[in-house]
Design a protein that fits this description.
The protein is an alpha/beta fold and 212 residues long. It is built from five helices and nine strands. Strands 6-3-7-2-8 form a five-stranded mixed sheet.
């Protein structure tokens, strides 16, 4: 198996500025006991929120003002000042940037959990899988905060990297026809000749296309 790191998952506590105007922001996990919290039904975290504290794990049974069954509902509830919620950082990134939510108790955050994309690595990677990896990995890294973590990637077998043409390269004005080529170059079967002619046609038409 091949594992490619795509991000780090932070578990954060958040609330809206409107809620914090009415209630003082918690300074420690124990302060959550005097706050309204948005908790989960049928989720492992539920209302038992765990925090690292002085080298040990501190579990706090937070009071539930509202119980939801999805993270999306918890985010909406927190943004609407219903209470304090615990979610993944990427789920509230835009709301934090806009000022709709504020992250709390950052000094007590658990260590970020690594997120990896794993796939079988025996033999040559199928082109469909390579296309998906090339599409998904940079976008997931950007969303999960690892946009600049990846170093230069080397080309994979079967996939050619495109390079810009050197300055001295001169595109020929016309590709020679099959009849104009040397007898040795014309010694090919009919499918090969058709492929050559088709390629010449595509290259010729490509010269008329505007550059991106």
């Amino acid at each position: 198996m091949i594992s490619t790191r795509i991000g780090l998952l932070r578990e954060v506590v958040c609330a809206s500025p409107a809620y914090l105007k009415k209630r003082e922001a918690p300074g420690t996990p124990d302060d959550l006991l005097s706050h309204d919290c948005v908790t989960y039904e049928r989720y492992a975290v539920g209302s038992n929120w765990e925090f690292p504290s002085r080298g040990r794990s501190l579990k706090v049974e937070v009071p539930s003002r509202l119980v939801v069954d999805s993270v999306e509902a918890a985010v909406v509830a927190a943004a609407e000042a219903a209470g304090i919620a615990r979610v993944a950082s990427y789920q509230i990134e835009e709301l934090v940037k806009s000022g709709s939510l504020v992250m709390l108790l950052e000094a007590f955050e658990p260590l970020p959990a690594p997120v990896n994309l794993m796939y079988a690595g025996q033999g040559q990677i199928p082109l469909k899988l390579r296309a998906f990896i090339d599409f998904a990995v940079p976008r997931l890294r950007e969303r999960l905060g690892l946009a600049h973590a990846a170093g230069p990637r080397t080309p994979h077998a079967g996939v050619q990297r495109r390079h810009k043409k050197p300055e001295s390269f001169q595109q020929p004005s016309r590709l020679p026809s099959v009849s104009e080529r040397s007898p040795q170059s014309r010694r090919c079967c009919t499918p090969c000749r058709i492929a050559v002619e088709n390629a010449a046609s595509v290259c010729g038409s490509a010269r008329t296309m505007p550059e991106a």
